[in-house]
Amino acid sequence: MIFITLTKWKQAPPKEIVDKFTKTLEELEKQGIKMRVYWTLGRYDGVTITEAPTEKDVMKILLPFAGLIDTETMVAVPREEAIKLL
Fold it and tell me: Longest Cα pair distance anywhere in the chain, in angstroms?
């Protein structure tokens, strides 16, 4: 499954949190979960695209950061699969 998460920092991120998240990304890769993180300008501070087996996997990743970021996560369906539903 593919998930798109929009994030907004509640406060400026301390360096140790950025380092912790970087380590988390490395650990997830070993588990077969792919995350691409983009820092953005505008309404949201970041966009994350995650490929994970279930919604629960994404929740486990995001919940430890709940005090630091606000999130909005959407399930994405690839165009080719969506067309088949028509």
Answer: 47
